[in-house]
Amino acid sequence: MEELKQDSGLNTESIIHKPVMLQEVLSFFVRIENPAPLVLDCTLGAGGHAQAILEASPAASYIGIDADPEALERSARRLSAFSDRLTLREGFFDELLLDLSESAKAAKDFRKPDFILFDLGLSSHQYLGSGRGFSFSADESLDMRLSPRLEDTAADIVNRLPEDKLADLIFKYGEERYSRRIARAIGEARRNAPIRSSAFLASLIAKAVPPAYRHGRIHPATRSFQAIRIVVNGELEREERALVLAANLLAPGGILVVIAFHSLEDRISKRFCREYGKIRGFEELCRSPLVPSQEECEANPAARSAKLRALRAPLSLRAPGTQKAPGILNASLVLKAPL
Q1: C-alpha span between 267 and 172 (Å, rounded)
Q2: What CATH number does domain 141-233 carry, 3.40.630.30, 2.40.50.100, 2.60.120.200, 1.10.150.170?
Q3: Contact by Cβ (8 Å): 254, 113
Q4: What is the pLDDT of residues 281-322, one digit of tens each?
Q5: Model pTM score
Q6: How big is the chain by its Cα radius of gyration, in Å?
Q7: Crossing angle, helix 48-56 and helix 22-29, to 10 degrees?
Q8: Residue boundaries of the structural domains of the chain
Q9: 20 to 30 A Cα–Cα from 327, which one of 41, 51, 83, 266?
């Protein structure tokens, strides 16, 4: 995650990267016994964790994955000094992990990663510098796609879904108690003209909720925007698939670290760590999640909601077999918004 300089004008060059929970990530990385480890960063972002790990371990090789081509371009510039040890791959982590898993099955000499990292939060570059409508603080196109390869934008979902389905979506993925009011307001507005602006949608949501909620601790559109973004990018389903693939891909004794930023993400990683340890004998390295220090939260408010969990693969890995890893979420909208 990142924070902004207090500059008079906002541009992507004014954004300084502050990787969340960096010291905690490094504390797990140094437990790797391989003196020349292979690191797989499934959410490269602006490359803050990558830079720290590559600097700390001159013999490490690093594979960085990101669905956002703009993020990869920034990382390539930032990490140019490590180009001989760095491989960048564009794509969603669940899809690329599946490709790597197939390669591991096909090649006997496939090198498995010793350390796998997921930092599931969006960066401030994406919130404030992408122009894709992730934030309600600017008037931008209502897109919210992490990758241009995706077909449906946030505008497509907001303007196409029936009101009841939209309410269920906002309730399920945003845990928004006023989801039905918000969906009703969206339905009324789009009957006049399609909703294409992030600022207009945020204003619409703010007007739909009670005044006390409108002026609460967080912006009233926060949960709705989260829900729409999650659905546009399939974030929770991708996380669930990717964690299983990543754990199966780890080298014996390797470590998997996941940093989540909201309760839905953390619920998946929590249950996965608990259940996968029982199924395959992985060691849960922190029974309770690690959270950022007070000093880090003060220096980087974006870190406040972060929760870190970690697993270590056994030294002798059993084949995954046919046992299904625990299912957590389903693509269907099983939760219904309150009336």
Answers
A1: 13
A2: 1.10.150.170
A3: yes
A4: 899 999 899 999 999 999 998 899 999 999 999 987 655 543
A5: 0.88
A6: 20
A7: 40
A8: 2-125+235-312, 141-233
A9: 41
